[in-house]
Amino acid sequence: MPQPRKQAPVVIAIDGTSASGKSTNSRLVAQALGFIHVDTGAMYRTLAWYCLRHQIDVRNARAIAAACRRWKATLQCADGQVYLAVDGYYPATEIRSLEVSAVVSHVAAVPKVREWMKKKQRECLQFGNLVMEGRDIGTNVFPETDFKYYLDAKLEERARRRAADGLQENLAQRDQRDSQRAVAPLMIALGAKVINNSQMTPEQTSGTILADIRQRLAAAARAPDR
Ligand code: DC
Predict the structure, then answer these.
(1) Mind listing the pLDDT tens digit for each residue in 98-137?
(2) Which of 11, 64, 179, 199 is the most exposed place for a label (fewest CB within 10 A)?
(3) 165 belongs to a structural domain
């Protein structure tokens, strides 16, 4: 007897510039759909924190790659979120420090690190349907997904949002490093829906994404098997 085909997990890819509202909106979208939220920026930040803690020179790509090979980091899923725990510990507060923000784009530019992260990020499928936020999710980690979104906002607005969180960061410099690196740079994925949310609330941004997802899911359900 033919068995019903098992549905592959759905992946919603949300990429964009720093402080463009990826985290807030990814969380809102994941909650509304009952999907698991994955903050891939937090994964890179965790490695940056690990390097600082072990006095590894963040300008030395070989040393960072060696640390990434060595560290004991495992994927954990709790309360609808996936994160990397290092020796069983998740440095939730530490990874948001200015020290980590200042060096994370160096760590994220190392090709061996990106290879390692991509593998781990794809392993997140074991947890089910995902909303995954980052810089290269639609272009590199899950290029096969039909659900790609790219968030952006004016630089002044993004700086204002960071300042409201009590952080003064050089966002332009970080965006430049993220966009100009050789491997999997920040860019708009082919077919991504671009949302400039300078003038939008998180409810409006996540509402726009959710409406689009629901429309596409309904269309896919109506379409004959591909
Ligand atoms: O989103 P965030 O600010 O927490 O990301 C931290 C850094 O990690 C950012 O400078 C870019 C990098 N990053 C990346 O290169 N690829 C991803 N998929 C996610 C983040």
Answers:
(1) 899 999 999 999 999 999 999 999 999 999 999 999 999 9
(2) 199
(3) yes
